[in-house]
Each structure stands twice: as structure tokens, then as C-alpha cells.
């Protein structure tokens, strides 16, 4: 590992050159784009072909190579190679081609990568840089040492990360307990933070806490790289997490924490325990809830049925399902002026035992009790087909992780139930090997009437016999978390409240441009993520200030001076005084691969 600020004195022969070793590494990472004059200055002429690429040419080469690679996993491996050897090129590729690359560095490919993580780890990680923390439960008492090690082996600009994504790998996407192999998720999420919110990749820290795994296949696999033991009980889990979070807080006082893919109970437990103590949020509960709420608002408007007449059936009752149900219920109460009691009655939940009812006879997990039905009399439905017949849902939301759960029979029956209005079907399980149905199936079995959003990325669908191609909505929290993180890094709120996330979610629902609305989309195009993130960030900072949570005087003053929050108006571009100031601030502090290259080269 390289020491960050070491000055290299090279006294080979008569030459005596002095430069910061990190600068040299950064320049060499540009590879074929290092200008001829710079090659001479850092003594690498003669060590590479004479041809000099522009960065655009490098990008074109990389895109051709990416296309040539066969499987998604190959593509991922290729992009990792680019990231390790030429990070600027990597992020340029991601930022400029987000719709193409997000499905490779993020869901669905990242699911496959996680399953294989121990096998490919040695080929994914750079040998000259730290690229994350792997905190074993045996070392949680040594957090000071781990933080010190991290700083010692990181270049100065990485020593104070602004944001981390942390998981224990216990519920990775819909794939279950993947132990240390879950590290692919924090890595992928943070790459989207760079692409979506302009955060500096050097200030992003992926973290896995390795508390063992209950995945027997990994425990038996000699190549598995994590701790080979069962997960701890709840007491030990929470006390170990306390040490980790306290240690992180001490080492990196300003770092924002994103909890990711913890098993359901722990996801709720950690959020409850920490949300008022450190700047944090849970992406699966709050982020997924917010993105689905935005899609739901737009879907209701297109469905042809007034909000209060909808019946929402949730298939699956884990952290994401309850997070989504809670968010939609609050939205229904606030936006459509429906009482809590009436709103609650619009929801039905199913789990592996069937419809969740108060008199089902089993002890319901705490998070399900609120939504358990009391009006079912003696009716207890076991299969989804029975539940659909009984509930007659207008909205079908899948968070079950059961592929094919929305079968032809289910989709046809939902279509028949909703003859007067369009059915809303959101198969949100992730990646595509766990999705309840594909976009093509949802279209085919509803006579192309479905209003659709999925958790994973599905290809566009061409309606048979027409040349009409429809791009499915992706109700993935990637629309949300970059702005929660960026807004929190800038405004430093005391806590991230549900009401602040609600404001952001409304801004997402309002962020569609005229074309996207005319096409009947539920979400803006992924390619516009970076632009959309600005208005979402404005919305959440505004709400932080309104709620008295923001701590940074600059943002407090700016929002207070800006009496007309135009950016919240769907029909206007973000153009208020506050938004101009935000745009300037984001431009000033947001990281751009091209600008970084130019600075390095010109400083030499
Ligand atoms: O990572 C994703 O694509 C969405 C997510 O948070 C999850 O499924 O846990
Ligand atoms: Mg997640």
C-alpha cells in the first residue's frame, strides 16, 4: 500500500526528480491520455505506445470493449478494471452513459457479482488503494485502529469520507444472507452517488460489517472470504453495531451513514436506535418507500380511479414492504385528505402464510401487526390467487422475492378486476431472478393496460403489431438516495425525518418533463438523474430548514431569504434564488472526472 503524501526522490543515474507520488499515480492512471509533454516530465516516455488519446477517444474505446464483452458479469469485470486503473475514465463512462451502465454496476448485475464476490474479489480491488472497510465482529473493539489504518493507507483527499454505505450482508437485495459477499452493494450504491449527486469518489466509503453468515453454502465453501461462523444473537448484534457506529462517528465526525440491506428486524431496529443520534437513514425502508410513493402518485393520476377507491395488496411483508406501505399510507392521508383509519383500511398484506389477519392464529412479527386485517370474519386466504379474489386489488405490489409470483393467472385476474380503470402492478423484488414478473409478462397478460414499475431494470417492450415501444419505470431507490445523501452532506441536518424524505419524494413525482409525461412515464429518465437530483436536493434541504433541522447557517439563511420556493412547483425549472445558490454550491463542490484530469495535468 502506498503512503499518501510520500515524495518520491528518484536518483537513478544522474536524474533527480521530485514529485508527489500520488500525482504521478493519478497521471499514469490516465494511461493513453497522458499528453506527450507530461510523459517526459514524469519520465514515462518510452514506456508506452507513442499515440495520445483524448479522453473522449478513451471513452469510445471503452464503450466498444464493453459492448464486445459477452455476459453482464464480464462487463462488470471489465468496468472494475477500468475503475481500478483509470478512475476518471470509469466515472466519465458512468456519468455519460448512465442508462447503459447502471444495470451493470448496480441492479441486476450487482446481484450476480455479490453471489460470486469471494471468487472475484482479488480481481475487483485495486492493489494500491484502500477501497472500503471490512470490519469483523472480532475487531469491533479496535475501531480506533481500523480508522487509523484506513487514514494511513488513504491519500489525503480520502481521509475524511463524507458518506458511507454500510451493510452486514444479511439481506442482499432479494438474495438473502450473503455475508461478506454483500460488499458489492455498498460499492455499487456509492458509484451511483458519484454519478447521481456528483460526490467525490474519494469521499465515499463502502463498509461491510462481517458478523458471520447463516448461509450454509458459504460456510462450506473453502473460497468464501468472510468469517466462517453463524451470525450473533440480537444483543451481541446491537452491541457490536454500537461499537462500529460510535467508532465511525469518532473517526469521521461529519460522515453521513446509509444503512443498507440489513435483515428486516435489524433494519428497523438500527434506524430506531440511531436516527436521532447520527446523520443517517435506511435506504430500504425510507429510500424504497419514497421512490414508490413518487411512482404511486403518478400512477394514481393515470389509473382513472380516485385515490380513496384504491385497494393496495402487498405481496411480501419485510422491511421494504412495510417501509413502502407506511410511506404510501402517509401520502394517502396527507395528499388525498383521508383519515388514518380509512387509509389503513386500503392496505392488505400477505406473507408466506397468506393474508395477514389478526385472527390467523400465529404470532405476527411486530412490523405486521399494524396492517393485520380485522374485518375478515372467518376468511383466511392462503394462496395469492385466493387473496386476489378476496381483496380485488387495484394496486399489486410485489416485495416477496418470489420469481413468477405474479403469474399469468394472477395478472389476468387483476386485469379483469380493473376493467374500468388501469391496473397498477409494481413487482419490486430485486434482482430480476427474484422479480414477481417481467415487464413483458405484465403487458401481455393485461392487454398492455398495466401501469408498471419494477425494482430491477427490464428492457423496453414493443407492443405486438405496432411500432410502439414502451420503457418500463424503474421504481428503484437510486432516484432517492443520492439526494438524501447530498442534501445531508451540505445542510448537516440534526436528523433525517420522514417528512423531509416525503418532500423529496414529492419533488421526484413532480420532476417529469413534458415528454416523459406525454409518454405516460412514472419516473424521469435515468439519464436525467443528475439533473433531477438537484431539484430533489433543494426540496430536502428546504424541508430540513422548515423543520429547524439544518445546522449549516448558510442554508438556513438562504432558504429563509427565499420566500418563494419555486423549485417545488412542478411546472417550473428550479430557478429560485435558493436553487441558484444550490446549483452554484453543487457545481463548486461536485466532482467531475474531466475537471480533475485537467487540474492534475496543468499542475505538473
Ligand atoms: O439495490 C437496489 O437495487 C434496491 C435496494 O436497495 C434493494 O433491493 O435492497
Ligand atoms: Mg437495498
Automatic annotation (TrEMBL):
Q: Which Gene3D superfamilies match?
A: Malic enzyme, N-terminal domain, NAD(P)-binding Rossmann-like Domain
Malic enzyme N-terminal domain: which residues?
A: 83-275
Which cellular component terms (GO) are annotated to the entry? mitochondrion
Which coenzymes or cofactors are required? Mn(2+); Mg(2+)
What family classification does the UniProt entry report for this protein? Belongs to the malic enzymes family.
- How is this protein named in the record? Malic enzyme
Residues binding a divalent metal cation, per UniProt: 260-261, 284
Keywords, alphabetical: Metal-binding, Oxidoreductase
The active site annotation covers 106, 189
Amino acid at each position: 500500500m502506498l503512503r499518501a503524501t510520500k515524495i518520491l526522490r528518484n536518483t537513478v543515474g544522474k536524474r533527480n526528480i521530485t514529485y508527489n507520488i500520488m500525482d504521478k499515480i493519478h497521471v499514469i492512471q490516465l494511461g493513453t491520455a497522458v499528453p506527450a509533454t507530461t510523459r517526459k516530465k514524469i519520465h514515462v516516455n518510452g514506456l508506452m505506445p507513442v499515440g495520445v488519446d483524448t479522453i473522449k477517444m478513451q471513452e469510445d474505446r471503452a464503450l466498444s470493449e464493453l459492448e464486445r464483452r459477452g455476459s453482464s458479469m464480464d462487463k462488470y469485470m471489465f468496468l472494475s478494471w477500468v475503475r481500478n486503473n483509470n478512475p476518471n475514465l470509469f466515472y466519465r463512462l458512468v456519468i455519460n452513459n448512465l442508462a447503459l451502465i447502471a444495470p451493470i454496476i448496480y441492479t441486476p448485475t450487482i446481484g450476480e457479482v455479490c453471489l460470486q464476490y469471494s471468487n472475484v474479489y482479488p480481481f475487483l480491488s485495486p492493489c494500491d488503494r484502500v477501497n472500503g472497510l471490512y470490519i469483523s465482529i472480532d475487531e469491533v473493539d479496535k475501531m480506533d485502529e481500523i480508522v487509523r489504518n484506513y487514514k494511513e493507507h488513504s491519500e489525503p483527499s480520502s481521509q475524511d469520507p463524507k458518506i458511507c454505505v454500510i451493510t452486514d450482508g444479511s439481506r442482499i437485495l432479494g438474495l438473502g444472507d450473503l455475508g461478506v459477499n454483500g460488499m458489492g452493494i455498498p460499492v455499487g450504491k456509492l458509484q451511483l452517488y458519484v454519478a447521481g449527486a456528483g460526490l467525490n469518489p474519494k469521499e465515499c466509503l463502502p463498509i461491510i460489517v462481517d458478523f458471520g453468515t447463516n448461509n450454509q453454502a458459504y460456510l462450506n465453501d473453502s473460497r468464501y472470504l468472510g468469517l466462517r461462523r453463524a451470525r450473533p444473537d440480537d444483543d451481541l448484534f446491537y452491541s457490536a453495531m454500537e461499537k462500529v457506529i460510535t467508532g465511525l462517528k469518532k473517526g469521521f465526525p461529519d460522515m453521513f451513514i446509509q444503512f443498507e440491506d440489513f435483515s428486516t428486524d435489524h433494519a428497523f431496529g438500527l434506524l430506531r436506535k440511531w436516527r436521532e443520534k447520527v446523520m443517517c437513514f435506511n435506504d430500504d425502508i425510507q429510500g424504497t418507500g419514497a421512490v414508490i410513493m413518487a411512482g404511486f402518485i403518478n400512477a394514481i393520476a393515470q389509473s382513472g380511479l380516485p385515490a380513496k377507491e384504491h385497494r393496495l395488496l402487498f405481496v411480501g411483508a419485510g422491511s421494504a414492504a412495510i417501509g413502502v406501505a407506511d410511506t404510501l399510507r402517509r401520502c394517502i392521508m396527507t395528499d388525498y385528505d383521508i383519515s388514518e383509519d380509512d387509509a389503513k383500511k386500503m392496505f392488505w398484506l400477505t406473507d408466506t402464510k397468506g393474508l395477514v389477519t389478526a385472527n390467523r392464529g400465529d404470532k405476527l412479527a411486530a412490523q405486521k401487526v399494524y396492517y393485520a386485517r380485522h374485518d375478515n370474519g372467518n376468511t383466511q386466504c392462503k394462496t395469492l390467487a385466493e387473496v386476489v379474489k378476496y381483496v380485488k386489488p387495484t394496486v399489486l405490489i410485489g416485495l416477496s422475492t418470489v420469481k413468477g409470483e405474479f403469474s399469468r393467472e394472477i395478472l389476468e385476474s387483476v386485469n379483469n378486476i380493473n376493467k374500468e380503470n388501469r391496473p397498477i402492478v409494481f413487482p419490486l423484488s430485486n434482482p430480476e431472478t427474484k422479480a414477481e414478473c417481467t415487464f413483458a409478462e405484465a403487458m401481455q397478460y393485461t392487454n398492455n393496460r398495466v401501469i408498471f414499475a419494477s425494482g430491477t431494470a427490464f428492457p423496453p417492450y414493443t407492443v405486438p403489431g405496432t411500432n410502439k415501444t414502451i420503457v418500463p419505470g424503474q421504481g428503484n431507490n437510486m432516484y432517492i438516495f443520492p439526494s438524501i445523501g447530498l442534501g445531508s452532506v451540505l445542510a448537516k441536518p440534526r436528523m433525517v425525518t420522514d417528512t423531509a424524505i416525503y418532500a423529496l419524494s414529492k419533488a421526484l413525482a413532480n420532476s417529469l418533463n413534458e415528454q416523459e409525461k406525454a409518454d405516460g412515464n412514472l419516473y424521469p429518465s435515468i439519464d436525467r438523474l443528475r439533473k433531477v437530483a438537484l431539484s430533489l436536493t433543494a426540496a430536502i434541504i428546504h424541508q430540513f430548514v422548515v423543520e429547524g433541522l439544518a445546522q449549516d447557517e448558510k442554508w438556513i439563511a438562504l432558504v429563509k431569504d427565499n420566500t418563494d420556493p419555486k423549485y417545488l412547483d412542478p411546472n417550473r425549472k428550479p430557478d429560485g434564488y435558493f436553487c441558484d445558490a444550490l446549483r452554484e454550491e453543487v457545481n463548486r463542490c461536485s466532482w467531475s472526472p474531466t475537471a480533475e484530469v485537467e487540474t492534475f495535468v496543468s499542475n505538473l
